[in-house]
Amino acid sequence: MKFPLLVPTLPVPVEVDYPVIEPVREDVHRPFWSVMIPTYNRPGYLEQTLRSVLEQDPGADEMQIEVIDNCSTIGDAEEVVSRVGGERVSFYRQPQTVNPTVQGTTCIRRARGRWVHLLHDDDLVLPGFYTAYKSFIEQHPEVGMVFCSVIIIDEENEWRSIVSAPRSTFNGVVQNAGYEMLKSCLVAAPTAVVARHAYEKIGGLHPKLTYLTDWDLWVRLGMFAPIGYIRHPFLLYRYHSGSESNKMVMKGVRNREVLATIELNVRRLPHDMRELARREAYYYEARNGEGLRNSLHAQGQHIAALRYAFWAFRLDPAKGTFLRLLVSTLRACRERFRL
Q1: Does 136 share its domain with 112?
Q2: In the chain, where do the E strands start and end?
Q3: Are residues 66 and 159 in the same domain?
Q4: CA 217/CA 181 separation, integer angstroms
Q5: What is the DSSP code string of 227-272?
Q6: From residue 243, how far is each of 113, 122, 125, 154, 248 by CA, in Å?
Q7: Residue 11: pLDDT above 90?
Q8: CA 270, 271, 276: angle at the middle one, nearest 5?
Q9: CA dihedral (198, 204, 205, 207) positive or negative
Q10: What is the separation of C-alpha 100 from the centre of its chain, rounded to a whole number of angstroms?
Q11: Which of 224, 185, 204 has the alpha carbon at shortest distance from 103?
């Protein structure tokens, strides 16, 4: 087994052919909310997610609720929807299994509401989520997206930590949001609600990314309109070893897409802002790499941790990152050679 240090990065395209999001027809009823829940092979978690939404359901006139199944092979997602939601929750199954980017764009296209909430099938909204968000939106109609702090939970719904954006930068309405979002991806995806007209303007999810589609989306949204931030945590975000995001972290998929995502969005800034934005994005991404390094070491995944130690040093070649790279190398050698 070789130490997986160098990860090929994606090329940066001159232009990206983002999926088109057509406006909703004028003869279609427009609720305030569209809660779209993509699901795949997690019937138990899906039931919990649905119940968390239905407990604060304002009614069909105010909220569309739909589950989009990606041709699950475990359990029966349609049976879960029928049993838990009855006729209140609609169900759609993809004709064939598609990648997460296509699945997400499908959810956006099927949304009829003025504000779209893409909610993962293993996460939970806390009481007051939709009331607090709607109040914020009505007070700040200029925003194109709103997100909040998040509580990390494990497989057994045990709370592990609270993740908040820096108080000095994110407080209420975030101005110059595209630049701020580019510096660091601070949004837990299921906390974000997005105005559908914003999707109609900027398009759907990046068709070539698999891990950082959300980061690319937040930057584009921030360049389109101000972004709102609610510091109170209104969502439980599940982190578990079986999640697709965790598997991609272990394989280094994130690293493969980082530089292309940063450079693509740096090019959208005015020329005099690009170099500073690039340096700051590299610095914060190095800190993210160090955080992943620490987490993987704690799990005993020392070879995987070495990848992120090297990544942090590559982006921020300072004394501290070099020393941490040496420590990770020693731990990975012990794991590899059972020393």
Answers
A1: no
A2: 33-39, 63-69, 90-93, 115-118, 124-125, 145-148, 150-153, 159-163, 172-174, 193-195, 227-230, 235-238
A3: no
A4: 10
A5: EEEE-S--EEEE--TTSHHHHHHHHTHHHHHHHHHHHHHHTTS-HH
A6: 29, 9, 18, 11, 9
A7: no
A8: 95
A9: negative
A10: 11
A11: 204
CATH of the domain at 84: 3.90.550.10
Q: Is residue 65 part of a domain?
A: yes
Question: Mean pLDDT: which of 49-63, 147-161, 248-262 is highest?
Answer: 49-63
> Could you tell me the pLDDT band of residue 306, with boundaries at 50, 70 and 90?
very high
Between CA 29 and CA 70 the distance in angstroms is 26
Could you give phi then psi for residue 76, rounded to 5 degrees?
Answer: -130, 95
- Closest by CA position to 108, among listed 129, 122, 92: 92
Predicted pLDDT at 250: 66
234 confidence band (pLDDT: 50, 70, 90): very high
Domain assignment of residue 72, given as a range: 27-121
Domain count, the chain: 3
- How far apart are the C-alpha atoms of 21 and 110, rounded to whole Å? 10
E strand spans, 63-218: 63-69, 90-93, 115-118, 124-125, 145-148, 150-153, 159-163, 172-174, 193-195
Q: Is residue 159 assigned to a domain?
A: yes
CB 190 within 8 A of CB 36: no
Summarised one tens digit per residue, pLDDT across range 70-106 is: 999 999 999 999 999 999 999 999 999 999 999 999 9
Task: Report yes or no: 331 and 337 within 8 Å, Cβ to Cβ.
Answer: no
What letter does residue 40 receive in the DSSP assignment?
S
- Neighbouring residues of 24: CB distance < 8 A, sequence distance ≥ 6: 30, 112, 196
* CB of 331 closer than 8 Å to CB of 306: yes
Task: For residues 129 and 222, state if they share a domain.
Answer: yes
Distance CA 238, CA 302 (A): 23
